Amino acid sequence: MTRADSSSTPKWSFRADEAARSVTRLFGQRLFFLPGTHIAATLRPSGRLQNLSRPWHYWWQAHYLDCLVDTGRRELGSAEHSGPKFDGENRPSAGRLASRLVTGIRLRNFFTLVNFSAVNNYYDDMAWLALATQRLDRLAEDTRKHTGRERNAKILQSLTLQFDSASTDDLGGGTFWSRKRDFKNTPATAPVALYYARTGNRAKAQALLDWLDARLYEPGQGLYRDGLRISGTGDVALVETIYTYNQGPVLGALLELGGEGNLARAAALVDAVARGLTEPAPLLGRSAAVLRCEGTGDGGLFTGILVRYLALAARDDRLPAETRATAATLVNDTAEALWEGRRILPPQDRLARPGSHLVFSDSTALPARRSYPEGAAVELSTQLQAWMVFEAAASAASAGAPKPV
Question: Does 30 fall in a domain?
Fold first, then answer.
């Protein structure tokens, strides 16, 4: 199998730990000072009262949870070889922080994980949290830690009911984006399909993938468009925008279900991503194509999400060697570009907090000193993206290790 050289695994594990420490120290805090809780501020520098007045971004927290699980899985492997925790022996492990984060999200969301507040009523957000919680539960099982597993099971049961209600026969299938039920799209349908595939509901997952292929696949580019919007008069309009992150969970669901047809579609999707969603890499000082990034705000997560699933493709022996090599190269080069663009925080920087000494760019084409110059506020989403990419690079480079989930 063609993969990134396994000798790069220690390098990427080190870099992922550096990102994990920087993000958790810079953005992480207790919720309302409550013991046993954890939550991430969405912007730094900022005070606790300022954070309460801002949107707290449910789905950013879900990806924070996913990143902590990534680090927790590496800690698990490291523990088997007497390795240290990512943030030292005197601080919580990634798995413990992840469990506290679930508690923090639930309390911050008014004692529920169902995302139905006045401004947050999106099924795709819930799907990301379900996927991350499922992975956390698997981590708890593998580490033989039973704390929180009963809670996790209840969360997943509750969220599954939401996905069942949102995945209807309207427009021939697919999953609604929000409670307004006026938009069926890839951002909701793809992660829900992946969730169904990972929970054994293979028929539902396949039906959602087939709907995406029939209604939102753009054969000229080989990529998936955004969605179908229903107007007040019942007219249906195709939203043709193609985003990087939409391709990721489609790829993950195709790989999870397997089978000749799905694997052929997965291989074609990897090739299409390499053709259509890349750009030159000036930070690498060599000829290379890296995945484009999609700015700040929600877009600050998009490329990281795609890279997470490309790392699965890079390690999947069922795919052609050329496809695996393409996926591994995209993951590794994108990670290299983000690492090369990092900015080290000097002690006098108002962002600097104990242990948080790196800031990463929101772009693979620009260094952080330009996207986040000294004195600029830094968004959580973009820092999670870099951390996610480094974890993916560590995963893709781990030849011979168990397939990640």
Answer: yes
Q: In what helix (H) or strand (E) does residue 227 lie, and over which residues does it extend?
A: strand 227-230
Q: Provide the β-strand partners of residue 359.
A: 343
What integer pLDDT is reported at residue 16 of this predicted model? 97
Which range of residues forms the domain containing residue 213? 6-396
- DSSP one-letter string for 259-317: SHHHHHHHHHHHHHHHHHSEEE-GGGTSS-EEE----SGGGGGHHHHHHHHHHHHHT-T
d(CA 380, CA 373): 16
Contact 230/236 with Cβ under 8 angstroms? yes
- The CB-side HSE value for 155 (13 A sphere, CA atoms) comes to 28
What confidence tens digit (pLDDT) does each residue in 282-330 have?
Answer: 999 888 899 999 999 999 999 999 999 999 999 999 999 999 999 999 9
What's the pLDDT score for residue 400? 44
- The rounded distance, in Å, linking the Cα atoms of 243 and 91 is 37
| Domain total of the chain | 1
Does a structural domain hold residue 401? no
* Residue 23 belongs to a domain: yes
Q: Is the pTM here over 0.90, yes or no?
A: yes
The answer to the question of residue 1 being in a domain is no
Instruction: For the chain, give the mean pLDDT.
Output: 90
Count of Cβ atoms closer than 10 Å to residue 1 Cβ? 13
pLDDT-derived band at 90 (thresholds 50, 70, 90) equals confident
Q: Which helix (H) or strand (E) holds 103?
A: helix 94-108
Residue 259 belongs to domain with CATH number:
1.50.10.20
Q: Which phi and psi angles does 280 have, rounded to 5°?
A: -60, 160
